Amino acid sequence: MKKELDDKIFKEFPQFFKTKGDLQRSLMDFGFDHGDGWFEIVYNLIKDISLFLLPEEELEIQQVKSKYGTLRFYSCPSLIKEYSWRLWFIPYCLYRLRNSLQKLADNIRHNIFHHYTRMEQFYNLVIEAERKTSITCEECGKPGHLVYIHIWYYTVCEEHEKELLNDKSYS
């Protein structure tokens, strides 16, 4: 993403980037590693998270990038740290595969973690943003689709797909 867009998010939401500069805790020194077309999605996700968090809760955004053609949002919310050390052992993919693992997720939510629903709400914000990127061109923000070009996955519109196919630097 362009530096100006990175800076806009860093300036508006500094509370989420306190460890920026510490490469052992955050990769945000490298900026947001995706195209400009996803700026609105990422900006709205961070804004929604800022409204969702309670005053005593914190969030450290560690990395935001494109991987396999969709958004990846890595963070460390205080929801995890304060409520239960056991939440670290619930794989993130459990939330991503929620539909197919609904029975297991319900069991965990009702029998193990009394703060699970708050975590679920947090991850639902992230998952919804990831879903939006799967249908939005990473370069321009127009409707897009997933393509596999030159050993990489991209979500792009038809115009940018043609540009990637014609890019001779991969030959």
Q: Care to describe what's here?
A:
The two termini are 25 Å apart. The strands form two sheets. Strands 1-2 form a two-stranded antiparallel ribbon. A two-stranded antiparallel sheet has the order 3-4. Helix 2 packs antiparallel against helix 6. It has 171 residues and is α+β, with helices and mostly antiparallel strands. The chain is globular and about 50 Å long. It folds into two domains: 132 residues, no CATH class; 35 residues, no CATH class. It is built from seven helices and four strands, in the order ααββααααββα.
Number of strands: 4
| Proportion of residues in extended strands | 15-25%
Assign an overall shape.
globular
Spans where pLDDT lies below 50 across 5 or more residues: 81-91
Estimate the mean pLDDT confidence. Answer: 82
Quaternary structure of the protein: single chain
Helix content: 40-55%
Rg computed from alpha carbons, rounded to a whole number of angstroms:
17 Å
* Integer count of domains: 2
Given helix and strand content, the structural type is alpha+beta
What is the rounded distance between the termini? 25 Å
